[in-house]
Design a protein that fits this description.
The protein is an alpha+beta fold. Among the domains are: 93 residues, SRCR-like domain (Mac-2 Binding Protein), CATH 3.10.250; 103 residues, Trypsin-like serine proteases (Thrombin, subunit H); 99 residues, Thrombin, subunit H (Beta Barrel). The protein is built from five helices and 22 strands. The strands form six sheets. A six-stranded antiparallel barrel has the order 17-18-19-22-21-20. Strands 11-12-13-16-15-14 form a six-stranded antiparallel β-barrel. Strands 3-4-5 form a three-stranded antiparallel sheet. Strand 11 and strand 12 form a beta hairpin. The longest helix has 33 residues. It is globular and about 105 Å long. The N and C termini lie far apart (155 Å).
Length: 466
C-alpha cells in the first residue's frame, strides 16, 4: 500500500483554483486565531550630506555671526544718534559756547556752570526809553515787581550789567501788564548774592508796578544851539565827548558810557594796542583845554575779536580808565546812554555827530570840537550799487549830513553818533569810515552800537574788577 506523504500532515497550501472545491468548514472546526501584529519599521531618515558630529558647531557659528551683525547695527545706530545729539542743540537743556549743555534751570540762576560763563552772561537787560528792568529766566524775559525792591537790589542789578560797585543812579517804578508773571524780591535778602539769586517767580504784583533802573545819570546834554549846520560846539554841549591822544596829539574820538569806560573804533587801537601809550581827555572843546583838564591813563583796551581791517566789520573797541571820571565835579563831563533793547532808532531818525577838527572856514588854528546834524540812511539805500554796493553789514549804519555846507560828516574815527529820543541822548554809532558824505549818495558809515550791546556789557563784566 502506498502511503501519501502529505496526507494528514497538518495545514497545507491550496491553490486558488482549488479553493472553490473545498466544502466550507463546520462551526466546530473554526478555531480562534491570535495574530501578533508587528508595526512596520519606518523608512530610514534621509539626512543631509553633513558629516556625523558637525551639525551642532555649524549652527553655533551661524548664531555667532548673526549676533555680531546685530551688535554692529546697534553700534552704528548709537553712533548716528550720538552724532545727531552733539551736532544739534541741546534737547533737554541750554547749550554753552563750547558745545556742552546745562539744564534749563541752571541758566541765569546766579551760578556759573558753562566753562566760559555763557549761562550767566546775558541775563539782565534794560528795555526801552524808560529803562525797564528785565531778567531772563525759564526761557523768557520777565519784569521785576517793585514791591520790596530797594537800592541794594538796584546796585546789584547795575553790577551784574558790568558797572562798578559804586555806579548806581536810581530805581523807579512804572505800571505794566505781564502774561508770563513777575519776579519778586525774596524775603530772605542776601546783599552779597547775585541779583539773579535774590528774585523768585510770582503770578501777581501789587498794582502791576515794576522796576526801572538807571545805573548813571546818562544822556544829558546842555548849552548847545543845536543849529542844523556844522559849527563850533560850546563847552558842555556834548559832555560824553573825549579826545584819545597818542604822544600828546589827538588821534581819535570816543564817547563816555560809564565812569570807567569809553567807546571808540577798533581800527584806532589796532596799531597801538598798549594801554600805556594812550591818554584820555574829557570835558574839552579845544586842544588848549588839555592844559586845564586832567589826563586819564588807560588800564585796558578791548578791541572786538572779530574786527576785520579790510571789511571794517566789528569795528568797535572799549577803553577802561585807570581811575573813574568824577561826574559830580563838572557839568562838562558825563556819560551818554547805551541804546536799550527795544529803543528802535531807525531811519530817517535825526542825529548829531561831533569831531575835533579845523573851523568851518578851514583856518590854521588849533583843532576845535565841531558839531553837525545828520539823518540816518536806510541800509538798503546805502548798499545800492551807486553808493557802497553791498559793503554795509548788519553791524553798521549810515548817516548823511543834513547841511552840505558844514562838510564835517567825515568825523573823527571812533567819534560818537548820538540821537535824542524821549528826552534822552543815546549813543547809536561810532564813526568807522566813509567818503565825503556831503557828496550825493555818499553817507558816512558808523558802527551799530545796538548790534554790539551784548558784547559791550560782556566786556564790562569781564574787566569789572581790573
Amino acid at each position: 500500500m502506498t502511503t501519501d506523504p502529505y496526507q494528514d500532515s497538518g495545514p497545507h497550501f491550496v491553490l486558488e483554483d482549488d479553493k472553490r472545491k473545498l466544502p466550507p468548514p463546520g462551526r466546530s472546526e473554526v478555531k480562534p486565531q491570535y495574530v501578533h501584529h508587528v508595526a512596520p519599521k519606518p523608512p530610514p531618515e534621509i539626512s543631509q550630506s553633513v558629516p556625523e558630529g558637525k551639525g551642532s558647531p555649524r549652527r553655533c557659528v551661524k548664531f555667532t555671526v548673526a549676533a555680531v551683525i546685530s551688535l554692529l547695527l546697534l553700534l552704528l545706530l548709537a553712533g548716528i544718534l550720538l552724532a545727531y545729539y552733539f551736532s544739534s542743540a541741546c534737547v533737554h537743556g541750554m547749550q554753552c559756547g563750547d558745545g556742552s549743555c546745562v539744564w534749563e534751570s541752571q541758566w541765569c540762576d546766579g551760578v556759573t556752570d558753562c566753562p566760559a560763563g555763557q549761562d550767566e552772561a546775558d541775563c539782565v537787560r534794560l528795555h526801552g526809553s524808560s529803562f525797564l528792568l528785565q531778567i531772563y529766566t525759564s526761557k523768557s524775559w520777565r519784569t521785576v515787581c517793585s514791591h520790596g525792591w530797594t537800592e541794594q537790589q538796584g546796585r546789584a542789578g547795575c553790577q551784574h550789567l558790568g558797572h562798578s560797585r559804586g555806579t548806581y543812579f536810581k530805581s523807579g517804578q512804572q505800571q505794566t501788564d505781564s502774561d508770563d508773571g513777575f519776579l519778586t524780591v525774596k524775603s530772605d535778602f542776601n546783599p552779597e548774592a547775585s541779583i539773579l539769586q535774590q528774585l523768585v517767580l510770582s503770578n501777581t504784583c501789587p498794582n502791576n508796578s515794576v522796576v526801572t533802573l538807571r545805573c548813571s545819570d546818562c544822556g544829558i546834554g546842555v548849552n548847545s544851539s543845536r543849529a542844523p549846520g556844522g559849527q563850533l560846539a560850546s563847552l558842555g554841549a556834548w559832555p560824553w565827548q573825549v579826545s584819545l591822544q597818542l604822544a600828546g596829539s589827538h588821534r581819535c574820538g570816543g564817547a563816555i558810557i560809564s565812569p570807567y569806560w569809553t567807546i571808540t573804533a577798533a581800527h584806532c587801537v589796532a596799531r597801538a594796542s598798549s594801554p600805556g601809550a594812550w591818554t584820555v581827555y574829557a570835558g574839552m572843546v579845544d586842544s588848549l583845554d588839555t592844559l586845564f583838564n586832567p589826563a586819564y591813563s588807560v588800564s585796558h583796551i578791548v578791541a572786538h575779536e572779530g574786527y576785520n581791517s579790510l571789511s571794517r566789520r566789528n569795528d568797535i573797541a572799549l577803553m577802561r580808565l585807570s581811575k573813574p571820571l568824577d561826574f559830580t565835579a563838572s557839568r562838562n563831563i558825563g556819560p551818554v546812554c547805551l541804546p536799550n533793547v527795544g529803543l528802535n532808532i531807525t531811519s530817517p531818525q535825526e542825529g548829531w555827530i561831533t569831531r575835533f577838527g579845523r573851523t568851518v572856514n578851514g583856518d590854521s588854528g588849533s583843532p576845535h570840537l565841531m558839531e553837525a546834524q545828520v539823518s540816518l540812511t536806510d541800509t538798503a539805500d546805502c548798499n545800492s550799487s551807486t553808493t557802497y554796493n553791498g559793503r554795509i553789514s548788519q553791524d553798521m549804519l549810515c548817516a548823511t549830513e543834513m547841511e552840505a555846507a558844514a562838510n564835517i560828516c567825515h568825523a573823527d574815527s571812533g567819534g560818537p553818533l548820538v540821537s535824542l529820543k524821549d528826552g534822552v541822548w543815546w549813543l547809536i554809532g561810532d564813526s568807522i569810515w566813509g567818503d565825503r558824505c556831503t557828496e550825493q549818495n555818499k553817507p558816512s558809515v558808523y558802527g551799530n552800537v545796538t548790534y554790539f550791546l551784548d558784547w559791550i556789557y560782556r566786556q564790562m563784566r569781564k574787566h569789572q574788577d581790573d
